[in-house]
# Entry
Amino acid sequence: MNDKLYRIILFVAALIVPIVCGGVVYALVTDAYDAFEHFGFLNFLTSSQWSYTAGNEQYGALPFITGTLMTALLALVFCIPFSLPVALFVGEYFRGTKVASVLSTVTDLLAGIPSIIYGLWGFFTLRPILMALDISPQGSGVLTASLVLAIMIIPYVASLSAEFIKMVPNDLKEGAYSLGATRAEVIRKIIFPVAGSGIFSSYVLAIGRALGETMTVTMLIGNTNNIPDSIQSTGNSMASIIANQFGEADDLRLSSLIAIGLVLFLITALINMIGKMMIKRARIV
Amino acid sequence: MAKDKLMLWGICLLAALTAVPLLAILGEVLLRGYHQLSWAFFTEPTPTAYKAMKAIEAGEPIPGGIANGIVGTMIMLGMAVIVAVPLGILCGAFLAENSKNRFAQFVSYLTDLLQGTPSVIIGIITYIWVVVPMKGYSAIAGSVALCIMMVPLIVRSTEETLKILPASLKEAGLALGGNKARVMMRVQLPAAFGGIFTGILLAVSRVIGETAPLMFTALGCSLIRFSVDKPISAVPLLIWEFFNDPNLQELIWGASLFLLLFVLALNLTAKYLAKRWNQ
Amino acid sequence: MESVTPILEFKKTCVSYTKQTMAVKYVSAAIERNTITAIMGPSGCGKSTLLRAVNLMHSLYQNIRVDGEILLNGENILSMEPIDVRRRVGMVFQRPAPFPTMSIYDNVLSGFSLNGIKLSKAEKDTTVERCLKSVALWDEVKDVLNKKGTFLSGGQQQRLCIARALAMKPDVLLMDEPTSALDPIATKHIEELLLDLQKEVTILIVTHNMGQAKRISSKSMFMYLGELVEYGDTETMFTNPIDERTKAYLTGKMG
# Structure
């Protein structure tokens, strides 16, 4: 095989990725077109109606956009108090020790559990607990879904943040210690400012993950097509409405679901792009 | 100083708490599922709801197992791996060889995009691309969905492993007069084998538990099937069916235990291999 | 003196990284057959760059340019296919780099396999034995030929890399500080080996170590800031350098 043929083969293989991505956008846009044409693009995004009575079909994405953003952001809030300590544990306090590698194995395994099993656990274990404690009277809902989502994104955020915490140069830390700083002060005044943008970007990427998580949310959010009015109420996320209704939908409803898919795709792509750009910057510094 | 101690203990406590969900999930699935694992569970297809209902009424254990799901998962995974592995490795090699090139940077960016795409959207896309033109759900459609999800993972791991190989290896190969293709095939790829293999294991473990993309592509089927153009089942699809069917709910835990152990074993193997390979 | 075509000749050879910085400036020199020529100079003087240009290693990187001519047996290699040049010019690097996935046996033959040349079993055996003998490694490894090359000591690995280069029967062997990663005893072995090898192959060696240049080379080049300052008999250069800069370097007044 000569160099030219080799280069062509590699190039063709690499071409697959842009073709698939282009195909994704093309297919989503063409199949969502009906819904946008029927309801109007902005109206589709801002309408909170979702009814499929024949003859008076009304589909709008607002309840699901709201549900998605609520679960993802809430999950982020719940995950911070755990992911940050894990990151400091692995990346600073016990860096390179056996305990740290055990903890990172634990979080890696946590990351490997399929989302449908998280959903089962949330449904059969966490939901009864929340009901018994009267935190969430119905059991299912935004709160339950985001609690389990939080557990799912902890490993991701923790390992990425730990990577940035490890990159803080030793001279900086030693300089601070030599001036009499305590460990807590070094973390607050040296590590967080230096690694901060990297840690922040790991949270951004975690939101990207949480937005598209399907099965867990579908099993726990309660599946009602209204805008959730509190964190305890039920709802649907963009991913869960698709999972629930795609199989039985046709025509306008199918197109509306695909339109929701397009919106979800664009939002996750945007968040991921921002996160990756921030990470790239944080790595250079 | 007291504050320092407090912070250390606080961090240890919160870090230890993250292990709780893992143990809780493992414990629950294990305790509720282990007594279902039997020979029949792995060799028989799922029972119909009627049969299950009869068994429940008679106070007997539900007959049947998840063999249809295991066969379906293996068939779809096998087809996905056959396509995704060579494609991913070639694309990863392209990115590693041309890291400065504009087009490669564009491809690299799109790889991230594809990797971050929610799996439910991969399901929609495969439905539009494969199910609609083929006029039906099929194992092929399911494997296309899994393949699309595996490719970016394999591309990344291949690219990263090739990039951390010492440059001297490639230069030594070329200095002996080998052309780039031969040096890649005989020197670089063999040297990167450990990392690439680990990446493939992780990619498999990532997609094996995927449910959403299979719901609109493979659909599910209660028979043990080997044909690729008909609807087929998969283990996660079965769990989803059991979850939604009160008569079959008892079977959830055995199926989950099987899936969970399989995924965790793959993960641990990959981690172990990565460690060994790094030394 | 009879006039023959020198085996290797630099004619106004320049290597530039970008348009501004020139790493090697207008080097002209003829290398004699079956000699060891040492290239010396402080770090960053362009000696490695010049050496790598002979094997067209620069063609791997897009931002490097080579101008002028480099003649191998009178032919300009800059207009030849890199692969053809590299089959005739062997190279040994600073750090021993045996291919980690190949056995010792396959490492010696890797030049053939990388070039897609098929050998019979007998040819393979004789080549492996000849090459390992000529680097004095045969007795040490003849019973473990199927083990991976990476299990050898650093000095043995480097000798394996030399054997690998010799297997292709090159006209010229380029060595880029081949002993800088080795201990003194391994270094001594390699040096003795090179003195022996010059009967078969012309050697061009970049070295940081003046003692080494003095011990093994018959000709020496001194480079400074990309220029070839002085080129001549090693003996003369060490006892009676012409240029002030050479003198400063050899007396340790220049890093």
